[in-house]
Specification:
It contains four helices and no strands. It is mainly alpha-helical and 79 residues long. The protein has one domain. α3 crosses α4. The radius of gyration is 14 Å and the shape is elongated.
């Protein structure tokens, strides 16, 4: 996940927040979620430990259970 893959959806969310009167708390939550997931995946790529890869996927699945829409987008591969 590159910097642009985080920045572009965030910019879209901010514009929606400005024009559609969406609260900024969910926008901030989505941004932080994207950054955390990107960091976890980068950490997993740097490691040769398979347990770390499985742990990262478990964390992502755990966040998916919280009902965060951005997680389903990340899992679908759109981010």
């Amino acid at each position: 996940m590159s910097f642009l893959a985080i920045l572009l959806p965030t910019a879209k969310d901010v514009l929606m927040g400005l024009f559609m009167k969406v609260a900024f708390k969910p926008i901030l939550e989505r941004f932080v979620t994207r950054v955390v997931i990107a960091g976890l995946r980068k950490l997993a790529k740097w490691s040769t430990n398979d347990v770390l890869d499985k742990t990262v996927e478990d964390i992502i699945n755990s966040l998916d259970g919280k009902g965060l829409k951005v997680i389903s987008d990340i899992k679908a591969g759109s981010l």
